[in-house]
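Case study B.
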Amino acid sequence: MKNTAKKLSPQTGDDSGALIGVAHNWNKRILVVDDEPGICESYADILAPKKNVLPLRSTRTLSRPPNEADPGYEFEVTICDSYDTAWEAFQKAQKDGRPFAMGFFDVMLGAEKDGYDLVKEMHNLNPDLYAVFVTAYNDRTIESINSHLGAKKVDRWDYLNKPFTQGEILQKARNFITLWNLEKEGELKTAQLAEAQARLMEGERMASVAAVARGVTHEFGNILMQIMGKADLCRKKEPQEMKAGLERILEASQRANEILEKFKNLSGTGEGHNQKDWVFPHHVLDEALDLLEHQLKTANVKVTIIKRDLVKVRANATSLLQVLVNLSINAVHAMGNSGQIDYAIVNDGKWVELRVRDYGPGIKRELLDKVLEPFFTTKGKKGTGLGLSISREIVEMEHRGQLKVVNHPVKGLEVIIRIPVDGEGQYG
Amino acid sequence: MGKPLFDLPILVVDDDAMVRGVVVEYLKDLGFSNILEAKNSQHGLKLIQNSKFPLGLVLSDWEMPGVSGLVLLKALRKNPGRKGTRFIMITSQRSMERFKITQAAQWAVNAYIIKPFTCDVLKEKIWQVMGWDEGGGTQATG
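Model:
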């Protein structure tokens, strides 16, 4: 299918295999199989009429030039006069990546196998092929054809009686060619949508990474200052001072490495960041707070952990980390300059509850539902509007939990997350 | 241009004790003897506002909680008793936002220095800002 699509505008740059921006080129290939030369001529006249008549050969491919009567339908017709030549042409089309969208199949082909057998074999390689059986005899019932081709193919074939009219052939051709292409376009659009969604999620993750990155940059600046400073100062000193300086350098390097590891976890370049494992939420919280230390300090936000149960839960640590970072950044933004965030980790039997509460203005009652929707943001241009909805997706889809947003009775907004300990759980 | 003044009163402000320690040691190594340390920006602010303590140079981190380096710079410039005091801003952001840069320029910051930096780099900045000739440098250590 890939080969029927042509890149119109490479909006996505150099992503190989990226679907977005790809358009679908209509496939108008029709296969005709009939062992009577006269009938073949009829098909040619109807589907691909030309001023000059080509000499009869066993297989020929013709094009029908567009005319004013019906513009836009230029079929590419391949006419075969036997089972074997038809099968050959079909296989070649598959191999070339230019499969037939549909075919007109004479039932009686003068061999042991008939048109139904031919189509059945073709469906093994090209299950989407539309077939019109053309027959002079009513030798098979609809039901027997269905059982021959398989129930799943029931909407992939039709039949016509000989002698057929021009209109019948033309309409069947138009209908099935359109069906084939719309189906492929639909598949393409579904794939594009999935890809767009994946990119959005990735973009949002990158946004939280970017938010943390400034803090990491600052930390690194300080740590490197220690390392560089000690090295610069102590190299001219006595061995004793040198030794002490080197110790400090080693400590600082280790601290830098820890921060780098945590940052890698968040940005998903750590190891195995897409799997579930037994995780301690309080570890993930510690990691999130570590990553956000700079942000929290600069915004003068106090952190309180009101409950810190030690409980294991089946979860994706990287995703949970992203959620906590996300919610914390939202909380900081809600409070502007200075404030407090309360965190709670509560062991609730089969569930674990995580709560993040800020002391900001909260959210208007009417908007509490909207706030979980993608693209809704109260931050104007600053917010992507995806943080909460992606956090919800992580909690509800990936972890089969629940995410609720409520106004705290005293002050502020509270996000309450419940995750099943065993990773299974039921909604509600 | 003039000769370096090693008894120039220098104020170092950084809430990170390690970094502050390194800067102070650098200054000592360069031969300065009159170094004041502010362990947080509030403390630094008080020292800047109170003209009783003479100050020739302020070395301050930009990103500090509460009172940022920019606030200290403004306070310095607004204080009539601190005319002529130079200000070097220490920052870790290589690409500082346009807004920050214009703000600091507006308040006449004398120079930036980007973490991490060696002693030589610090010396270069200070000498440049104070308009000193070469001379002086790291004191011989025993």
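The two ends of chain A are 42 Å apart (CA to CA). The remaining cases will be described in the next quarterly update.
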